Amino acid sequence: MSNTLTWKNWIKSHETTIPESNYYEPSNEPDIRHILEIAIASGLKVKMVGSGHSHSKVAQPVSNNILISPVKLSGELPNYSWLKPDSQLNLQSSSHALVRVKSGTQLRTINREILAPKGLGLINMGPFDGQTIGGVINTNTHGTGLYLPGFTDMVRSVEMLVVKTTSNSERLVETWVIEPTHGISDPQKFSDESNGKCLIQDNNLFYSVTCGYGLFGIVHSYTLEVRDSYWLDERFEATTWQAIKNKFNDTVDEQINNDEPPRFLHENHQVKIYVNTAECLREGGIKDDTHCRIDYWNEVPVESRPSNWENHHNNRKKVWPPARKNPGNHFGLWLQGLLFNISKPKPAAATVNILNDNFFVSDNGEHFVRGYKASAYYRAIRRLPDECIEYDSSLSDSEKDVDNTEFTSDPEANNVGTSIEFSVPIRRTIEAVEKALNFLSDLNPDVNFITPIGIRFTKESMHYLCPTYQRDSAFIEIVGFLPNNRANKWDDFKDDYHDAFDKLIDYLRGEFPGGGVRFHKGKYNTYNDTTLATDYPFYNTWVTNYHILNATGLFDCPNAARWNLDASKPATLTPIEAGIQMDNFKSLCSKEGKGLEIVETTFSLIPNSGDHLKIELPVWMRSSDLEIEIDLASAPDSTYLQFSSELTDPVRFLETDNFYITNHYQKDQYLLTATKTRGNQGSIKKINIPSTRLYPISFRLSVGELPFVTTQNPYHENYSAKILVKRLGEPAYEITIHLRFYIAPFVGNLNSTPCPELHMFGCEWEMLMSNQHRVPYFSIQDAHNDGYDNGHYCLGGSTC
Questions:
Q1: Is the dihedral angle over the CA atoms 460, 523, 224, 220 positive or is it negative?
Q2: Rounded to an integer, what distance in angstroms lies between the CA atom of residue 764 and that of residue 769?
Q3: Which phi and psi angles does 720 have, rounded to 5°?
Q4: C-alpha to C-alpha distance for 800 and 782, rounded to whole angstroms
Q5: Cα(276)–Cα(734) distance, rounded to whole angstroms?
Q6: In the prediction, which pLDDT does 7 show?
Q7: Is residue 380 within 8 Å of 297, Cβ to Cβ?
Q8: Which residues contact 328 (CB under 8 A, 6 or more apart)?
Q9: CA–CA distance from 518 to each of 209, 435, 526, 566, 589 (Å)?
Q10: What is the rounded average pLDDT of the residues 205-216?
Q11: Rounded to an integer, what distance in angstroms lies between the CA atom of residue 77 and that of residue 100?
Q12: Higher per-residue pLDDT: 221 or 718
């Protein structure tokens, strides 16, 4: 019987046992390839796990299968030789640069050994630096800062080993370099220098796999966008909940990211808010005078080390940049407060008082050794001091500056516990905090949530399964934990904490429906396929890519099972009613089909309103041409259809009928526009698209004119548009969109004199209009803006 080993996550709440023979520590790309080939031959699943710094099952491997540790996948790699010139890299700032690192590199190594010697730094980071870069990217770990991204959005290129299934069911290991559509790599240089790798520059794929939770393949390296090195000063401000609310009401006067952000978030580099949870639970909810604290970090000039810096007996005072002070009695009193009556229904008064007197206080900002109020960003953001070790007397002065002379050990939880973290749009921060704390107070759980709630702020993301997808967000974290001296009681308390979390999650979903609240998937959560589809508009696109890259389930894990991501199941198509609805944009995403995939749906469009239906088909092709047939014969006149694709070779029109077609080649994207003319059949019988690489296609359908309707027949459902997509001559998709139209309450008459007139729908003058002279309006103001005057007999008040 072979020996076994047990994997446990950071807080030891999830564990998995595997044979020692199934444990691997690769150090390079060929090693990873060899392990995947072993997995294919043996039929085992594969999971690579970093530091396990998650409270959920997101990192948990499958029992008795293969576990990969990235402990030797650490360090910097040369940037690719096939990158575009610097002027074409589209980096966020001229002070930014690119650095390529192996996926198992810990953040502290990146900060101190790789970036600091080059005068560079991470754009942002969280309060801990023991995680691997692959772990923080896959779970979208974030820091705080209204205009600062999470780790996922610092990635510019992913080098991933995937398992491709051929037409004869053979499984091959390939290395894919995956980037956004206009990525950092030069395709021509890549083809000359790639040494067997495959370059995929595609938004849909990149925004799926980067925040992929380890379910798409094994990442060898990431290319990150970094910036010049910087220092941050740190300041604590004691305040009250009422003062916090006042700050959120004081907004800047300009639109930024379609919103007017609070001034204190706009004017500071980074901000974090703490609320005294213990006080809220003891007092029956959050009150205006509840104790709070705001932590501010702002950039200051980088300082040079003083010449006499090392002339001190205390090692913490020798290291440079200045180390964070030992917390000393201040921190000890805070922890002591958390020990009081942790299992009682309400926090003890002593606990609340100790927190208020020792944690929720302002200070002079001297948080670093020898009176420094600032230090390098990786010391200022890190929540705890570094554990300094003795200097090696054999080191030279220059070697003593290297930060590995003070490394801490691998991450270990100071206390046993769990937490949830949820995001809401920034404008709903106050509402979300109040609802969550008041709910917990009313719930009166069997355990206490004594640790202060933390609130951080993060820039929107374009990655499909990031909690910040398409919105600047506030993250609110609620922690339940036991101090070390009660860690042996964790099993007695864990279920109570999780029961309270389950009830809170259900409550918040009801208060913020339709994805208004999203939960961090690296913390405790209850996500399944239904709730993911509700919270994330492009979840189905993400799932489609999952089925393509993980067709055999090789990279599945307990978290995938919880999300119902059985690789043998087809991706679920979200009904159109649950699609994206932002302004006048609506979207229907289909899936990769095997054979004919028929999608029929009814959709409402308001003519002349700007409403349109967008259909996205991830038709991933590399070996054959694609044929598309479009039939708008049953659509109303002036139906407008735009086909778009990110192609690099010309499109051939084999047969067309009654369309005005323009072929635009601009920025690697073809836009093929067609408008059905009055009285004609209206169809593109066949377009032939050459395959050059993996790419999606999309169609945009809108209607220009209002069909003739009456008050007795206010809707028309007998109009439709059809799209047929073929690969290798075989149908892959047939999509029928049934169109429904609304009556416009006002109709403009283009043929009226001396000025165009507006009439109410159904009035005698409106009924005399010819179809070609009708212009529908859904508001009088819009018509007035277009120069129409009120009709005298139905609206009155004519001035013409």
A1: negative
A2: 9
A3: -155, 160
A4: 17
A5: 57
A6: 82
A7: yes
A8: none
A9: 19, 15, 11, 23, 21
A10: 92
A11: 5
A12: 221
Q: Decide the pairing of beta strands 23-24 and 66-68.
A: parallel
Q: Are 215 and 546 in contact (CB under 8 A)?
A: yes
In the chain, the amino acid numbered 426 is I
- 477 has a pLDDT exceeding 70: yes
Q: Could you tell me the domains of the chain?
A: 4-68 (3.30.43.10), 231-301+326-365+414-519 (3.30.70.2520), 576-740 (2.60.40), 746-790 (no CATH)
Best CA proximity match to 98, nearest among 54, 156, 47 = 156
pLDDT attached to residue 286? 96
**Percent with pLDDT over 70 in the chain:** 71
Distances in whole angstroms, Cα of residue 26 to Cα of each of 23, 31, 127, 583: 10, 5, 28, 49
Q: What is the DSSP string of 194-256?
A: -TT-EEEE-HHHHHHHTT-TT-S-EEEEEEEEEEE--EEEEEEEEEEHHHHHHHHH-B-SS-B
pLDDT tens for each residue of 3-23? 888 888 777 777 888 899 999
d(CA 163, CA 171): 6
Say which amino acid occupies 107.
Answer: L
H or E segment at 108? helix 107-109
DSSP state of 259: B
Is the predicted pLDDT of residue 467 greater than 90, yes or no?
yes
Question: Which tokens sit at 244?
Answer: 């916090």
Three-state DSSP class for 775? strand
132 near 106, Cβ under 8 Å? Answer: yes
pLDDT tens, position by position, 503-512: 999 999 999 9
CA angle 555, 559, 563 (to 5 degrees): 105
Using omega within 30 degrees of 0 as the cis cutoff, is the peptide bond preceding 754 cis?
yes
**Residues 6 or more apart in contact with residue 684 via CB below 8 angstroms:** 628, 629, 630, 653, 655, 656, 657, 659, 661, 674
Beta strands in 562-610 (DSSP E): 581-582, 585-589, 597-605
- CA-only gyration radius of the chain, Å: 30
**SS3 assignment, position 559:** helix
Using N-to-C axis directions, what is the helix angle for 349-358 and 328-339, rounded to 10°? Answer: 160
